[in-house]
Amino acid sequence: MKLHSVRTRKSADHLPRTEQLAWKIAEVAADPVAVEPEVVEMIGNRIIDNAAVAAASLARRPVASARAQAVAHPFQPGATVFGLPLDRRVSPEWAAWANGVAVRELDFHDTYLAADYSHPGDNIPPILAVAQHCGLGGAALVRGLATGYEIQVDLVTGICLHEHKIDHIAHLGPSAAAGIGAALGLAPEIIYQAVQQALHVTTTTRQSRKGEISSWKAFAPAFAGKMAVEAVDRVMRGEGAPSPAWEGEDGFIAWMLGGPNAEYRVPLPEKGEPKRAILDTYTKEHSAEYQSQALIDLARRMGPVLRERTPDLSKVRSIVIHTSHHTHYVIGTGANDPQKMDPKASRETLDHSIMYIFAVALEDGGWHHERSYAPERAAKPATVALWHKIATVEDPEWTRRYHSQDPKEKAFGARVVIALEDGSTIEDEIAVADAHPLGRRPFARPQYVAKFRALADGIITQAEQDRFLELIDRLPTLTPDELGSLSFAVEPSRLGSVPRRGIFDRS
């Protein structure tokens, strides 16, 4: 890997293309280096993971809404949409949209945390949709996904968006565009322009994850994927983009990030170096924001110990979660969001309240993607009472470990102190989630398959599950026709309904 310095340049400096971040990303994307077997294996795992959480979300209103928009744009050859018959195709950007929402709705797929945070699996829907529409085979898809993950992880490693209140999809648009370009075997010149166009149109504020969080949290990455597809198409037709997008004196860094004096250092593979970044990412065992993963595991570990002291949890006086800056200020009491303590808050808001999540996990001894968010569960008086006794504080050591570049030291956990009314305390800590590569039960192919089977149970037939998983086993050698069926179909009754009509609905 090579670190690239990225900073604002005045227009009069005439920064050569070859020195611009977008060009360096394009060169990485266009590099035909072979994809290593362990990377291929993990790409298959993440396609399974995306399909699992999409199956569980099919009937939810935001997913049904996005799917209704997509089916209003039929297209041949087109791309598949989760849940629909495999021969029912829509325009690829709309397939990316519908599938992206299905993947993101439950906040239940993979993650990467560094200078910023991301869900790299959001690259899969747009890259797969274009691969299906353009008649690509499995090898091209693998090459594109390895690239999308690589660029996403490298940008997240080098550039913090959160501190400037920019939503993390500003890294996703460029990575998806780069991945699409790699899958299609496009020239660096085209990828260069598409990456910049995607950055320009996917830079949005972080309010989508602040206050009363709405369904836009699921739509936002799908929007980035849709914009990436359109950006590549536009540039393939000979159009350009705002340039240089990152370094320009009126560009991304100058006005959206650290300003004219800021310098960022972005790692990128050198020519001929394999794209391995997907191996640095990790998925979720629980349907909740990633920083809560380890704390759910800690809660189910501490619960039995607490009940040995007192079966009556009303005897808990306080619970203090000592954690990183990020966890405290994004999903903890440091966010100063009253909605995070509101029993009537939206599911998306509760998903970003570690106080609520820890209380429920402590009471229930685990977590469920539907039951744990049910309105009646959130309104349970005993839960509300316990929930409101929980606070977070930033611990500099946990912040340091959160930002550590040493994978063996990097941590997303916390130390929890439970104080009882009798004056005694219970204390425990956890560094990483059990499912993390360094956790107690790291996820590998069997765990991904088990997650898929569990979430697809009662939604996707056993035969359809088997067909989908068999394709994953042969991913790099899939023919275009086989890749075109890399989705799943369900009975119409499993798809939910959209109670309201929109502009795209036909009479």
From TrEMBL:
- Which Pfam family, any one of them, does this sequence belong to? MmgE_PrpD_C
Task: Summarize the subunit comment.
Answer: Monomer.
| Cross-referenced SUPFAM superfamilies | 2-methylcitrate dehydratase PrpD
Per the database record, which ranges form the MmgE/PrpD N-terminal domain?
Answer: 19-264
Family annotation (InterPro entries): MmgE/PrpD_sf, MmgE/PrpD_sf_1, MmgE/PrpD_sf_2, MmgE_PrpD, MmgE_PrpD_C, MmgE_PrpD_N
This chain's protein is named 2-methylcitrate dehydratase
Gene source species? Rhodopseudomonas faecalis
Q: Name the protein family.
A: Belongs to the PrpD family.
| Gene3D superfamilies xrefs | 2-methylcitrate dehydratase PrpD (3.30.1330.120)
Which terms in the Gene Ontology molecular function aspect does this entry carry? lyase activity
PANTHER family noted in UniProt: 2-METHYLCITRATE DEHYDRATASE, 2-METHYLCITRATE DEHYDRATASE-RELATED
